[in-house]
Amino acid sequence: MAAKPEPVHVSTRTAPDAVALEVFRHLFTALAEEMGAALKRASFSPNIKERRDYSCALFNPAGAAVSLGDHMPVHLGAMPMSVSAALDELGDLDPGDVVCVNDPFRGGTHLPDITLISAVFAERRILAYVASRAHHSDVGGSTPGSMPLAREIFEEGIRIPPVRLYRAGVLNEDLWRTLLANVRTPVERGGDLDARPVYSRSRSDGESIEPSLRWTVSSSTPTAWSRPGSR
């Protein structure tokens, strides 16, 4: 008969305050929910505005997921891998940088699901990363809608590795034109992509989440915000 495992004893001096942990869990989750509400209101296409095929999440400076909105589980399960891949390949982001990625081999789901990642700063120190993933109704490929019975990924549409769509707040015009030249509905794609960098980091009332995030992080316990390991 197998021996029973020894109980794990956690010192009360290092254990997190359970009540505080729960309070801040709800605060961080509320930030992700507010980002989603703002993204829905600002988006251009019915896919995001009416079908609500989008997700938002909040990550600590090491790229570890802290809170996920109550959105699309298939997005949220894979989004941390996209954030990790982006930071591994591009390094820490600067103010105004927005990374775009949809590659399934870098944490993406299918190609129509495009993820945008940016950093939130406090006095030039990275406070958090925010990410949103949304389904775009066409990203090229062999059939309209970009969901063919494909034999290889290239039939599905344009594949985007982690690249900076914005650098220091300036749109990468060459990348923008390349993306829109490879889809059947460039006006709709442009409208959705143009809305997301700002509104995926805003509250439902249009205000930035940054003041709320700064207050929440500064008030939270280390356990509520981070985990071992740093980038």
What's the short story on this structure?
By secondary structure, the protein is α+β, with helices and mostly antiparallel strands. It has helices at 18-42, 46-49, 73-90, 173-181, 186-199, 210-219, 222-225; strands at residues 54-59, 65-68, 98-101, 113-122, 125-135, 163-167, 170-171.
Topology:
Layout: H1 18-42, H2 46-49, E1 54-59, E2 65-68, H3 73-90, E3 98-101, E4 113-122, E5 125-135, E6 163-167, E7 170-171, H4 173-181, H5 186-199, H6 210-219, H7 222-225
Number of helices: 7
Helix content: 25-40%
| Distance from first to last alpha carbon | 44 Å
Rg over CA atoms, rounded to whole Å, is 19 Å
Count of strand segments: 7
Lateral strand order in the biggest sheet: 2-1-5-4-3-6-7
Strand content: 15-25%
Low-confidence stretches: 227-231
Count of separate structural domains: 1
Describe the main β-sheet briefly.
7 strands, antiparallel
Shape: globular
Structural class: alpha+beta
Q: If you average the pLDDT, what whole number results?
A: 83
User: Can you write the helix and strand succession as a string?
Assistant: HHEEHEEEEEHHHH
Oligomer: single chain
